[in-house]
Fold this sequence. Notes:
heterodimer, A: mainly alpha, 10 helices, 0% strand, B: alpha/beta, 6 strands, disordered C terminus
Amino acid sequence: MPQVISLALFLALWQAGSLLGSDRLLPPPLEVALLVWAEALSGALFVNLGATLARVISAFVIAMALGVLIGYAMGRSERFNKFSDPWLIIGLNLPALVVIVLAYIWMGLVEAAAILAVALNKIPNTTVTLREGTRALDRNLDDIATVFRMDRWTRLRHIVLPQLGPYIAAASRSGLSLIWKIVLVVELLGRPNGVGFEIGTAFQLFDVARILAYAFSFIAVMLVIELLLVQRLERYVYRWRPKRA
Amino acid sequence: MHDFALSLKPGALTVITGPSGCGKTTLLRMIAGLDKDFTGSIALPAHARLAMVFQEPSLLPWRNVEQNVRIAAPAASADTIDQLFAMLDLNVHRTHYPGELSLGLARRVALARAFAIEPDILLLDEPFVSLDAALAQRLRDEFMALLDKRPVTSLLVTHDLAEAAKLADDICVLSGRPARLISELELELPRAVRTKEDIDGTRVRLAELLAGGEPGIFNPVVHARAQ
């Protein structure tokens, strides 16, 4: 019920804003909704959403895989940590825009450059999170694994991954939200389709309705992913914890 | 530790006792292969199966009791595990998670886990400490029953002299840091027939040894290889 009221309030404020202000600067909700419908009918909506989603997923998989591996390695080995730390600090502080622009310049305005640029932006954060998670691993459980001669696979599945679970979940959550924002930027700068591309075109045409139409469509997609995937994953990862009274 | 040599009799329970901080836990960890920072040698039979019960039960919190035992002992038969659970009174807790267990129960699971792999050598680090007296006694009795059923070469560390007197076949008494072997006691009377008087008598002897009051026995050097 509170969500419904909140949503209704939001729409009411939007409508009021568009009436009181200029309806070119803030088209009313109905106009935006009709545009979404039109784009859906023509198929353009799905082409663009699909392209953006594909980029988000690709970059996410690459960033998580590398971030987890490197973060784990840095947490386990002090030598590797000392060696990689300067690179990590540079990576954390390098502006996203610089990475994107350089990727396009050096690799051309190609898909690989776009996805790589997005992934490179996310990897340092993931690495830091997983490094902390690895440092927090319970040494007593490592001892158990050693004494009982558990093989690598058993250790990974029953001892390491359950402990890293919350850290991976946290990195996934923040990663997903960061990645799709950067994907929109790479699309705007150098791709011929996708939500970012449409927003870029709309910007040049001063078509605010189009901007809002695509923005909300994509937010809806990300919300669905959040509810269906991310929250389910979190519940699974935390299922053994004693429930609070 | 200093110039320490120890030999374990096969199938017997050797207890190491001594003041806190003298290195008893470190010794266990060295034998278990967890601590490699020492000079000396540890000779174990090839392919010896080692099990250890730590002071902290260290169960996997995200797996239930039965899974905890099975993960450590994948080769154990269902029969073996059933018998262990029956002897340690764990059947009703099979599907519980460690977070739901009391310390006594968690220690029982750790014991079950250790025995489930049918070890050649069993190491125990103060397994009955921090429990109330009645519960600790019960657990010791259950442990004795397990050893009875299947004798294992065991090394138990404790600072509780009465416990040492009750359970041990052999007792090694260590001094304070740097630990030296003050004395080695062989208890000939089998565990099962020791009376309270026997145990008290041994306990008093141990206390005397620890206080250094026993004449004629002072820093014997025992040269032997671990069997």
